[in-house]
Amino acid sequence: MTIHHIGQxxxxxxxxxxxxxxxxxxxxxxxxxRNIERIGEILSYELSKTLSYASKKVxxxxxxxxxxxxxxxxxxCSILRAGxxxxxxxxxxxxxxxxxxxxxxxRHTGDGDDFEIVVEYLASPSIEGKVLIxxxxxxxxxxxxxxxxxxxxxxxxxxxxxxxxxxGAQTGIDFVxxxxxxDAELWIAAIDETLNDKGYIIPGLGDAGDLAFxxxxxx
Length: 219
Fold this sequence. Notes:
This protein is of the alpha/beta class. The protein has one domain: 3-Layer(aba) Sandwich (Rossmann fold), CATH 3.40.50.2020. It has helices at residues 13-21, 29-48, 84-93, 143-151, 170-179, 208-213; strands spanning 2-5, 53-60, 63-70, 74-80, 98-108, 115-123, 131-135, 138-139, 160-169, 185-192, 194-195, 201-202. Helix 1 (13-21) packs antiparallel against helix 2 (29-48) and helix 2 (29-48) crosses helix 3 (84-93). The two termini are 35 Å apart.
């Protein structure tokens, strides 16, 4: 898997990432969602450079112009619910893409911190021969992305898979690298080194779903 750590280079991207991490800025849920969306837009722009293109003649009021336009069929898949703002950011740039939504949550086993990923809902078109973009803002253990990959197997085999994340832990990236195809590509804004005992990224930013949409009752 090829890893594109976009935040390594100095750019406006890091402003949006810093605000998603900042405890004071996080109090504004609308701004948090918009920052995740903007990060998705920047990562999508970088990803778009790898697609295949074909020249198309475009008619203007004063003549014609040949322009290279992407000629891929794209499907954007996000993991509910935290993935929704990131999904919107990706969709802002791939506005003709088809959409897949899937639920994947941690179900704790026993009284400790151990958990399994449970997938309960999937709505998807065929992904056969298409470019699949998996949008998951927090790549912590990597288990959610691997569970989604397995769940999507019944929808066909994509031509190419791209993963888009805001923040990832190196442990989770390594896990995903073991389970995805060699030609898969990860587009990520920031990489943190560690996870805590509960499997959350440190320093990370907290629970992206709660910050975007409010706290939830545990089940």
